[in-house]
Amino acid sequence: MLNALVTYAAEEGAEAHNPLLPAWYDIIWSSVCFIVILIIFWKVALPRMKKLLDERSAAIEGNIAKADEAQRKAEAALEEYTAQLADARKEAGEIRDAAREDGKKIVAEAKETAAAEAARLTTTAHAQIEAERQTALVSLRSEVGTLALDLAGGVIGETLSDDKKAQAVVDRFLAELEESEGAKA
């Protein structure tokens, strides 16, 4: 049977048929199928693809615009930060200078207060020394006067009991003693 089929095919194919060219009905039906597929692709798939590509393009452009806006905002924030930093440094310098001036004023005031306190203490000390000197002088006069009267009474052999007279003698003695010390100095 295979032989019969091959023989029959050989007899029909003997008519000068080119094996590279399809039959005319294959060309027509293939063209119709191609045109239908082309129309469906043209009407359905292509608009969807175009819509998808347009959406993607819009999304990319939107993202680029957002990125540009974010970059502008970042640059503006950086400039603002830089300006604030410069202002803060300037203010810190002013505060530091003001603190130095205040420190100098405080030191000067402290020196003035210390000098005034030292002058007051010196004056108080001089007054206290002078008061103690006067007290010592009065005490010394009375003691020296008493001793001098006792010694004079022992030398004379009498008791000098007249206070006014004795006081005048002691005062004269001390005045002479002070004059002799003043002449030596």
Q: Distance N terminus to C terminus?
A: 173 Å
Number of helices: 3
SSE run: HHH
| Biggest β-sheet strands, sense, barrel | none
Show unreliable segments: none
Summed over residues and divided by their number, the pLDDT gives a mean of 84
Number of strands: 0
- Please state the CA-atom Rg, rounded to the nearest Å: 67 Å
Explain this structure:
The protein is mostly helical. The protein contains 3 helices and no strands. The protein starts with a helix and ends with a helix. It is found in: Cell membrane. It comes from Microbacterium ureisolvens. Its main location: membrane. It is a single-pass membrane protein.
Describe the structure concisely.
The chain is mainly alpha-helical and 185 residues long. The chain is 90% helix and 0% strand. The chain has 3 helices and no strands.
